[in-house]
Structure to design on (280 residues):
């Protein structure tokens, strides 16, 4: 792991889930902008540079600022690419070095670094997880997504055993602890919640709560299924930018609800106030 003294180490927030399309990059960009607006110095790293969702949205954001002359907060950003080396140990060493270099460049000027991981089990994803102070796992609100956390009895929804991703997080926790005695606070966030709570949705919530104690995570009722979480992506904007960006979107009830959901997530991370980190 990058050797950064504990006192000056930024708080690292990892967005991870081996399941593709669960909302990692969407959650990452909303956390980044919310924290920037709270006065934190934020760094962002895309560990899924081949897909480049976070990289793309931040590039679009920069373009918006440059072309519209409207100032919006931007994070410091690095993309970490997968190695092109064939030999696995060499490729891992290559990726570790690329990650460490990017992290070391960002760390001195950041209070928080947000890492967006790919939706697959890769070396960079594992290495990123082992740096987490806070790990946020968005899951779509169904038992299909649930399967990467635990195997569940289809009849009665009892938990049979923890699954591969939960085991990967366990490994990351061990690595983090042996590196600097740090602990990973793991938040599993339900994403794309439907407006009406169907019976199956309640079951997901209940089963998640019972699994939380066994595997060691906290649960959060995260973002609702809302157009505002995806419609501004191509411009690199978020719902926290709507007023300033002056793009003709009227703030409705759904936006206010979405903003409340983002605020609830940010406060669940329990960061020290920005001003305190700046003088620390
Ligand atoms: N709460 C939400 N409401 C509406 N759309 C959403 C929400 N969360 C995510 N989406 C949409 O779902 C799709 C997948 O989201 P996203 O790209 O954030 O997932 P991901 O976990 O980063 O995917 P990958 O594993 O491929 O990196 C995107 O089109 C995104 O706009
Ligand atoms: Mg993504």
């Amino acid at each position: 792991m990058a050797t950064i003294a504990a006192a000056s180490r930024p708080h690292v927030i990892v967005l991870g889930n081996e399941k593709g399309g669960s909302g990692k990059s969407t959650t990452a960009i909303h956390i980044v902008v919310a924290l920037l607006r709270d006065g934190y110095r934020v760094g962002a790293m895309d560990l899924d540079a081949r897909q480049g969702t976070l990289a793309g949205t931040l590039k679009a954001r920069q373009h918006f600022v440059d072309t519209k002359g409207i100032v919006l907060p931007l994070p410091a950003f690095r993309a970490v690419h997968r190695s092109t080396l064939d030999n696995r140990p060499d490729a891992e060493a290559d990726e570790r070095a690329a990650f460490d270099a990017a992290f070391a460049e960002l760390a001195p000027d950041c209070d928080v670094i947000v890492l967006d991981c790919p939706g697959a089990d890769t070396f960079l994803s594992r290495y990123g997880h082992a740096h987490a102070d806070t790990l946020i796992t968005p899951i779509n609100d169904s038992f299909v997504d649930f399967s990467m956390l635990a195997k569940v009895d289809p009849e009665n929804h009892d938990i049979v055993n923890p699954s591969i991703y939960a085991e990967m997080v366990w490994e990351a926790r061990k690595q983090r602890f042996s590196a600097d005695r740090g602990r990973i606070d793991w938040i599993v966030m339900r994403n794309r919640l439907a407006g009406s709570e169907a019976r199956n949705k309640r079951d997901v919530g209940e089963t998640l709560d019972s699994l939380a104690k066994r595997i060691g995570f906290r649960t959060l009722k995260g973002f609702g299924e809302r157009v505002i979480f995806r419609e501004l992506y191509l411009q690199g904007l978020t719902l926290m930018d709507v007023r300033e960006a002056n793009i003709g979107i009227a703030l409705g009830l759904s936006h206010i609800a979405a903003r409340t959901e983002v605020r609830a997530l940010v406060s669940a991370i329990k960061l020290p106030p920005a001003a305190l980190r700046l003088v620390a």
About this structure: Residues 24-25, 48, 53, 116 surround magnesium ion (ligand 2) (CB under 6 Å). Residues 148 and 163 are 5 Å apart (CA to CA). Residues 2-6 have pLDDT under 50 and may be disordered.
